[in-house]
Specification:
This protein has 279 residues and is of the alpha/beta class. 38% of the residues lie in helices and 18% in strands. It has a single domain (2-135, 207-273), classed as Alpha/Beta hydrolase fold, catalytic domain (Rossmann fold). The protein is built from nine helices and eight strands. The longest helix is centred in the middle third of the chain and has 16 residues, at 172-187. It is globular. The two termini are 35 Å apart.
């Protein structure tokens, strides 16, 4: 794997790449909130050869840098992230890609498919947080944290963030392996205001969609059987909105790329072998 920064106007995104260029199309793996590219680290080496795999940190997560003017002017919404990832593909000379998104990143993947349908060859939506599955309880919690955060010192605020992250793992032991990677950006100077900026963006539900606005590309939906943030019923509801999609239920909670990387990689591998729809 090799990582580097790419300048996109006044922002810099970090990404790492793996695999080799071959007959297969590139694969873009998009993490959700509050994760980073680390989410996919055990999935990437299990993907089939012949594909260039691109794994970015979304703006304000992991190693990706905020604009010099700070987060106040940064678009951290689904649409903003989708636009920057399209710019990233342009910068890397990637015309088309299979896009897999987890959680909030699935909404970003859908936004890319709707906005740039000819650039998306396949879709994989993992424990997806979309307009159809937006978790009302989590949105209420985010609004409460936004209201009370100015009164909280950094320590208690990080404990709240860690507790929320813990709910996403079926195996609590996995959290210790991941929390430092995901919460590091919010412990830095300005981390509190950055976390609040992300939470504000999360309270803005993306526009609803229908199968008619999506490109008719092979689509896989993956869900953890013990996801406490969004149950399997949410996965079934999403499957009903995308008639040509398949739904696979795997072992784990919300962060299945970490908890069941072999299962997730196998499903993505099958997706990459599916025949493309020519229009």
């Amino acid at each position: 794997m090799r990582g580097e920064f790419v300048d996109l106007g006044d922002t810099r995104l970090y990404y790492y790449a793996a695999g080799t260029r071959g007959a297969g199309e590139p694969v873009l793996l998009v993490h959700g909130f509050p994760a980073s590219s680390f989410l996919w680290s055990a999935v990437v080496p299990r993907l089939p050869a012949g594909h260039r795999v691109i794994v970015p940190d979304l703006l304000g997560f992991g190693r990706s840098e905020l604009p010099r003017r700070g987060h106040a002017g940064a678009d951290l919404t689904v649409a903003g992230h989708a636009h920057r990832l399209t710019q990233l593909l342009d910068a890397l000379n990637v015309g088309q890609a299979c896009i897999a998104g987890h959680g909030f990143g699935a909404a970003v993947a859908l936004a890319m498919a709707i906005g740039q349908p000819k650039r998306v060859t396949r879709l994989c939506l993992v424990n997806a947080v979309t307009a159809a599955t937006w978790p009302a309880h989590e949105v209420q919690l985010a609004r409460a944290v936004i209201a009370w955060a100015p009164l909280l010192p950094p320590g208690p605020l990080m404990r709240i963030a860690r507790h929320a992250l813990r709910r996403g793992f079926a195996d609590p032991a996995q959290l210790a392996h991941s929390a430092d990677h995901y919460l590091r950006a919010f412990r830095s100077p300005g981390g509190r205001s950055l976390l609040l900026a992300h939470l504000r963006a999360l309270t803005r539900t993306p526009p609803p969609f229908s199968a008619g606005v999506l490109p008719p590309v092979p689509t896989s939906i993956i869900w953890g059987d013990r996801d406490r943030l969004l149950t399997v019923a949410s996965g079934n509801a999403l499957r009903m909105l995308i008639p040509h999609a398949t739904l696979d239920v795997v072992t784990g909670g919300h962060y299945t790329p970490e908890e069941s990387p072999a299962q997730v990689a196998t499903i993505i591998s099958h997706l990459l072998s599916a025949a493309l729809v020519r229009t």
